[in-house]
Specification:
- It is a single chain.
- With about 190 residues, this protein is α/β, with parallel strands linked by helices.
- It has five helices and 15 strands.
- It has a six-stranded mixed β-sheet.
- The chain is globular and about 40 Å long.
């Protein structure tokens, strides 16, 4: 898919996931999470070409402008959406699948200074609530939901719901809606 096609896909994904989005123009012009993703694509391309200093410089400029820090080495899938964005941190070895959504204040961070894989992997369709921290080289299975302010330090199977400090997974009941799970008082800590 070409660059313009990917940008249109990103705008459509934002409009699908954010009920406050009134138009494609509003999303394209005013959504810092979307701007951070677009900037990441450029910095990631530079990173892969081994222009590491230029890539890091560009990512820091994006961080300053958007409030979202995405390391240029992070691998991010399609239709990724960061709602509100401020305070999101995504580490160098993080891997994010397709159709993933993060709210503000989410950290995909490391727990060690060792080289190698040290940041989380999020499967396709994962939703992460505001302020959640996912730390270390954990794997979160596809279509899982992580509640607001949860602290995740262990792997979770697909279709899990993770809440609490430390977060503990439970299986999702058939038909449970991700949006409802992120806002329902039953799942807050």
């Amino acid at each position: 898919m070409d660059m313009i096609g990917r940008m249109r896909e990103d705008i459509a994904a934002a409009r699908l996931r954010d009920p406050a989005a009134r138009s494609a123009a509003e999303v394209a012009l005013l959504y810092p999470g979307l701007h951070a993703i677009w900037a990441h694509r450029l910095s990631h391309s530079l990173w892969n070409r081994r222009l590491r200093l230029v890539a890091r410089t560009f990512s820091q400029l994006s961080r300053w402008l958007t409030g979202v820090e995405i390391h240029p080495g992070a691998r991010i899938g399609r239709r990724f959406f960061i709602d509100h964005g401020m305070g999101v941190v995504i580490g160098e070895t993080a891997e994010i699948g397709d159709d993933v959504m993060l709210y503000h204040g989410v950290t995909l961070g490391g727990r060690t200074r060792d080289a190698g894989k040290r940041h989380p992997t999020l499967g396709d369709g994962v939703a992460v609530g505001a302020g959640a921290k996912i730390l270390g080289p954990v794997v979160i299975g596809a279509h899982s939901v992580i509640g607001a302010n949860a602290v995740v330090t262990r792997d979770a199977p697909a279709d899990s719901i993770l809440v609490g400090v430390p977060a503990r997974p439970r299986a999702r009941a058939a038909g449970e809606d991700s949006r409802a799970l992120l806002t329902a008082p039953d799942y807050s800590i």
